[in-house]
Amino acid sequence: MDNYRNPQPPEGINTSPDHPLLTFIKLLAGMALVLVIAAWILGNSAGWLASLVPFEQELRVSELYPESETQTSSRPELQAYLDDLAGRLQTAMELPEGMQIKLHYQPDDVENAFATLGGNIILYKGLLKALPNENSLAMLIAHEMAHVKFRHPIRAASQGLAINAGIKLLMGYSNVDILGNTGLYTQLHFSRAMETDSDIQGLSAVHSVYGHVTGATDLFATLHKLTATNGLAPKSAFFSTHPLDQDRIDKINQIAAEKGWTHPDDQLTPLPAEFMSWLEEE
Amino acid sequence: MDFQFWYILILLIAAYFIGTYIEKRHYKSIISRENELNTLPAVSLRKPPSGPFHQQLVLGNVTISVDYFKRFLAALHAFFGGRITSYETLLDRARREALLRLKESAREQNAALIMNVRYETASIYKGNGGNIGSVEVLAYGTALIPQRTLTQDGQLP
If residue A147 lies in a helix (H) or strand (E), which one and from where to where? Predict the structure, then answer.
């Protein structure tokens, strides 16, 4: 019986010495990286595809939301004024055939404005109240209009939709809504490059309308200063979605200087005298 | 979704600590029992040594499950490929525990040697979405019990 023996085998031959937590972190990080890359590819390809969708189709999608129909008929003077200003800018911006801009005034104290699907631009009372002159209002509308011209809303919405749908499908949900619960009033997220393109295009349209860019170049700086000195909100909603820093202001000034667009101090166009009362009207 | 995330995270943390504790305790027990039972050899040879032996089938069977953390880790491994390190300890523990139970059974019968030792492995939860979390290992062999340890009338004591 002495021929048979069972010596104790050394440990760790059939198992790996790797710490399970370390392995876990490595694999999870790898998985996160894969997901981020997949989301990036998905978002960018969806954005690119979306920019090929005709504007009429975008309009049909936006008309599914009831808000696209509501014009502020309770404020005919304000709507007429804004539409007239937008009309002049629209001509200057040379929007493609069939591209219609619809301005919506929202009497909420939110310091915000944004462009969304179907050429709809939402302007909030809070922001309009803070504007010092017509030039800055024109710059604001022109900026948002440029987003529509460059098809930014549908690109951003499609990017969001594709990533969202990808995540939801991965998690096993099947209900996918384009703009979420708040419908057309959903703020879309535009990239920094999209904002810069819209700044330049907007500035160019303002220059075509007024012959100078006074007030327009100062729009962001003025507003930024305004919210800072107010001390109420260190950053308004507008700036959280329209990232503002010195780079952006420098870029705008640089473009204006390159094009030779002037800043005569005495040519500001004031807002209509009744503007404030139009905003407050119930 | 938020709720789901925290639920999974808490389960993972709890499973990791409890699972690690149970595994360490099991390994400690395995090693000490192996040292003790190594005096009873178990070999895979089929030719018995000469001598008057009583032969007896002996079995050692164990079913072990991995914890939630390791199953989660295995799912990640399944995505990237490579060795599923989190299952290696599961199978190692199961095989050694099964052999120990086999030896314990043989020692109770005063066996001097176990021959022709074989393992059978089966996964429990088969067909449950490919989520194999538990494993059964059966070790079996032929125990050789020296005749002199039998009682007067030829029966096992």
Answer: helix A134-149
